[in-house]
Amino acid sequence: APFAANATALTWGSVCCGASGRRLGRRTGSVFSMRLNTVWAALLGAVTSSAGGSTAQSPSTATATLPAASFVNTGEPNTVTRPVTAQLSPVQARVMAGVATRAAAASESATGSVLAALDDPAFRTLLKRALPAAYSTVDPSLPAVELLERFRLEVAAAEAVHAFQTTPFTTQMSIQWGLNATAPWSLWQFQLAAAARGDGAAATAVADAEGFGAMNAAEEGLFGYPTFTGVRQGDPEWPARVWPGTMEEAADRPIYSTLNLRKIDGGNDIFGPVGLVWRQTTMRDRLILTPVDTGCFEYWCNSTWADIGCHRLTPDSCARAWSGKQCAWDASTATCVSANQVNAANCSQWPRPTTATLAPFAGTLAHFDHLVLPSAMWWNGSVPTTWQQNLVGLFSRMFLAWPHSVNQSGSGWSGSVFTPSNSIENFWEAEAVGARFGTSHTDGDVKMVLGIFGVLFGTPEGALLRTWCGQRGWALVWALGEAGAGGNGTAPNRTNGVAVYPMSQRFLDPVATGGAGHNLSLPLQKAQTVANATWRSLQPGPARTMDAVVAAWVGLRGKLQALQIEPLYGLSCTDLDCIGVAAVSRDCVCYPAAQAHPL
Question: Does the predicted TM-score (pTM) go above 0.70?
Answer without folding.
Answer: yes
